[in-house]
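Lecture 7 notes: from sequence to structure.

We start with a single chain of 104 residues. Read the sequence below before looking at the structure.
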Amino acid sequence: MNIFVGNLSRDVTEDDLQKAFEAFGQVKSVKVIKDLFSGESKGFGFVEMQAKAEAQSAINGLNGKELKGRALNVNEARPRPEGGRGGGRFGGGRQGGGGGGRRF
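Now the structure, written as tokens:
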């Protein structure tokens, strides 16, 4: 099961997350998402755990718990919407354009 971990302190490392989640079961992978240019943490990451029951236990046990001064936001990761990156300022909204102005 893939788990979203939000509200991470900028100095939380993948090792820190690994240790926190290992208390609940076997961790398959850990990834702290970083800015491509600065290399600084974006404040969230993902942890993948082997067993669904262990993952659910980790979610229940770590959501709201403090790690390096910040209360973690931990829940099941939702898959990205079709088409890759979702949300954002320019996603969705009205299609097309033009019109609405004066006619000549």
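The radius of gyration is 19 Å. Keep this in mind for problem set 3.
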